[in-house]
Amino acid sequence: MKVYLDYSATTPVKPEVFNAMTPYLRDYYGNPSSLHSYGRENKKAIDTARDQIAQTLKAKPEEIFFTGGGSEADNWAIKGTAEALKNKGRHIITTSIEHHAVLHTCQHLEKQGYEVTYLPVNEEGIISVEELKSHLREDTILITIMYANNEIGTIQPIQEIAAIAKEHKVLFHTDAVQAYGHLEINTQDLPVDMISISAHKLYGPKGVGALYIRKGTRIHNLIHGGAQERKKRAGTENIAGIVGFGKAAELAYGQLTEHVNHLTELRDYLLEGIQQKIPYTRLNGHRQKRLPNNVNVSFEFIEGESMLLSLDMVGIAASSGSACTSGSLDPSHVLLSLGLSHEMAHGSLRLTLGDQNTKEEIDYVLEQLPPIVQRLRDMSPLYENLKEGAR
Ligand SMILES: Cc1ncc(COP(=O)(O)O)c(C=O)c1O
Ligand code: FES
Questions:
Q1: Atom number, ligand 1, closest to the C-alpha of residue 208
Q2: Ligand 1 atom closest to Cα of 72?
Q3: Which of 105, 153, 203, 331 sits CB 3.0–4.6 Å from 291 for a disulfide?
Q4: Residue 11: closest CA among 326, 322, 252, 314
Q5: Domain extents for the chain?
Q6: Residue 102: which residues within 8 A CB-CB, separation 6 or more?
């Protein structure tokens, strides 16, 4: 059996999305900036996708700007604001658990003379809004806090954060790459200025995303060149990608409740099964305030890398916050921010569900995982000590 449980890394393109895209790779090749019919057809297709995405966010179509993915949207929101407001102030507030697209952008700005406050999170991965308030300064120009975390699925108190930002007249950007397609995001109720989203997390193609920019928000361009995207983001459009993104967004929000119910049921079944069958397990993140598709657990006394390889051998694709999988030398900054020891951070397993997963697949995982964990623990000297202590 093969079970894909890494939907937060990326999702497969849905057949309907693929079908919507193919004509734009095969037949309609005009440049949307051209005035002839070849171009006009494609301009229309982009406008349709823009409408589809605007509707899911209850936004105006002219507030949606297509980008080359979530990372670009994050870079644009942060660098574009920093540059536009540099005479007003140079202080930015973010959190210690952001995606690297946000963290590394902030670190880049620090080198340019900006000051960045990285808010800590509690052991469930949530920031304190009181603490956020206490860090606001005269020269704070931007708050950038993710909607939901990609590793532990934790959902931040976005409504409260947005209200604080508005009250203090500070711009608020949220990286909603993981939340989009799982949670309702209504820009009419939520006073947010910028939102990053990405197509490949909701069954759309990779390499296309968008930045929602509320009308009237001051932001400089990131990509300079032609007059595309109302002169805000240059470059001949990725038409097929944009069409696919529009279709994927429409489908995701058309079936949101069913999708979320399906995921939540499987998630809880998986999590409860793991907790029941495997002792010395810790759930990372908040039990309720979490994405419907995220299970992130740490198993004491084992290494995440060996666990992933063993799972892969029995056909289960998962991920972990460990050094070996991410190709970096450090364990996950998110798990360390929760206060986990390096050992526990290394023993973490992220299982993220998607629309194709079934209860049979979860049963298979619940059958395969416990002996794998046990086998790895049997090889661990720390576990040996624990058993001896218990004797
Ligand atoms: C929270 C978050 N932000 C940003 C990104 C980057 O998006 P993209 O892969 O489209 O550049 C990701 C994807 O891994 C993510 O999970
Ligand atoms: S999981 Fe391999 S070094 Fe941490």
A1: 10
A2: 11
A3: 153
A4: 252
A5: 15-254, 256-390
A6: 74, 78, 94, 144, 146, 175
Enter the ipTM.
Answer: 0.91
For the domain covering 15-254, report its CATH number.
Answer: 3.40.640.10
Mutation test residue for ligand 2: of 298, 310, 324, the one with most atoms within 8 Å of CB: 324
328 is in an annotated binding site: no
Residue 377 in tokens? 């623990």
Q: In what order do the strands lie in the sheet with 294-299?
A: 281-283, 294-299, 348-352
Closest-approaching ligand to the CA atom of 348: 2
Please tell me the distance from the alpha carbon of residue 133 to that of residue 4, in angstroms, as a whole number: 41
Determine whether 106 is an active site residue.
Answer: no
Q: Is residue 214 helix, strand or coil?
A: coil
Which is nearest to 219 in space by CA: 208, 230, 209?
A: 230
d(CA 238, CA 253): 22
Substitution candidate for ligand 1 out of 71, 154, 196, 294 with most atoms within 8 A of CB: 71
Helix or strand (DSSP H, E) at 256: helix 256-277
Q: Is the CB of 347 under 6 A from ligand 2?
A: no
User: What pLDDT tens digit does each residue of the chain (391 aa) get?
Assistant: 999 999 999 999 999 999 999 999 999 999 999 999 999 999 999 999 999 999 999 999 999 999 999 999 999 999 999 999 999 999 999 999 999 999 999 999 999 999 999 999 999 999 999 999 999 999 999 999 999 999 999 999 999 999 999 999 999 999 999 999 999 999 999 999 999 999 999 999 999 999 999 999 999 999 999 999 999 999 999 999 999 999 999 999 999 999 999 999 999 999 999 999 999 999 999 999 999 999 999 999 888 888 999 999 999 999 986 544 455 557 789 999 999 988 888 889 999 999 999 999 999 999 999 999 999 999 887 777 777 776 5
- The full DSSP string for 127-182 is --HHHHHHH--TTEEEEE--SB-TTT-BBP-HHHHHHHHHHTT-EEEEE-TTTBTT
256-390: CATH topology is Aspartate Aminotransferase, domain 1 (3.90.1150)
Instruction: Name residue 183's beta-bridge partners.
Output: 180
